[in-house]
Amino acid sequence: MSKYKKRIYEIVEKSHTGDSASKAYDTLISIAVVVGLIPLTMKHENDYSKLIDLITSLVFVLDYLLRFYTSDYKMGIKSYKAYIAHCLTPMSIIDLLSIIPALVYFYPTSVTLGLFRIFRVFRVLKLLRYSDTVVVIENVLRRVKKQLFAVLMLTFMYILASAMFIFQLEPDLFKSFFEAVYWATISITTIGYGDISPVTTAGRALTMISALVGVAVIALPSGIVTAAYMDEIKKEKSRFQL
C-alpha cells in the first residue's frame, strides 16, 4: 500500500524529474483551472456551463483528496500531524476554497449558490503551484515578513491616529468614526477619491501630511521586498552554477 501511496504522491506533486505521469497530471489540473473559469465570463448559466462546473469540481475534489491522502510524504512526517499541518498550508487552503463550489450540487440552497459564485474565483490561484517564480516570491516574503509586519503596524497606527485627529478637527464632516478611518486610509494611499474633503485649514494640512506619509508607506515595503528579491535571485543563480 505504501508503494502505491508514494507513487500517487510523486504524480500529484509538481514533477522536477521528467516524470511523464506527473506532467500529465499537472497539465490536467491546469486545463481544469482554465476551463473552469469559462462560466465566470458568462452572464447567465446554461447547461454547458453547469456541465463544465460539475466536471471541473469533481477534478478539484479528487485533487484535494489525493493531496490530503499523501500529506505524510509531502510534510515528511509519518503521523496524523502531517494531515493537520497540510490542511493549514496556504496552497491546501486554496485547494479547499476551490472545491467549495462543489457543495452546490449536494446542498442546492441560496447560501451554497452564493458560495458557488464567489469561490470559483479562488480556482485560478491553484495555478500558483505550478510557477517557479511564485516559489521565489514566497521565499522572499517569508524572509521579510517581520519587516513588512512592522511597516503594516506603523501604517495602521498612523491611520488610527490621523482618523482621531480629523474626527476632532472636522466633527461635522463625518457621520461616524469609521468614515474618519475610511478617509485616513484613502488619504495615506494617496488615492483621494474626493468624496470626503476637509474644509478647515488644519484638516487640509493633515490631509497633505497623510499624502506625504503615504509615499513613504508605499516606498518602504517596496524597497524591502525588492532588496530581498534580488538576494533570492542571486541565490538561485548560484545554485544553478553549482
Description:
This protein has 242 residues and is mainly α. It contains eleven helices and no strands. The protein has helices spanning 2-12, 20-36, 47-69, 71-75, 80-87, 90-99, 110-119, 132-143, 145-169, 177-188, 201-241. It is extended, with a radius of gyration of 24 Å.
Concise structural overview:
The chain has 242 residues and is mainly alpha-helical. The protein has two domains: 2-130, Four Helix Bundle (Hemerythrin (Met), subunit A); 145-241, Helix Hairpins (Orthogonal Bundle). It contains eleven helices and no strands.
Helix content: over 70%
What is the beta-strand fraction? under 5%
Number of helices: 11
The CATH architecture term of the largest domain is: Up-down Bundle
Q: Which structural class do the helices and strands define?
A: mainly alpha
- Using the alpha-carbon principal axes, give the shape: extended
Write down the CATH topology of the largest domain.
Four Helix Bundle (Hemerythrin (Met), subunit A)
Low-pLDDT segments, ≥5 res: none
CATH class of the largest domain: Mainly Alpha
* Biggest sheet layout: none
Cα(first) to Cα(last) distance is 38 Å
Number of domains: 2
Strand elements, count: 0
Radius of gyration: 24 Å
Mean pLDDT across residues: 79
Could you spell the SSE succession in H and E letters?
A: HHHHHHHHHHH
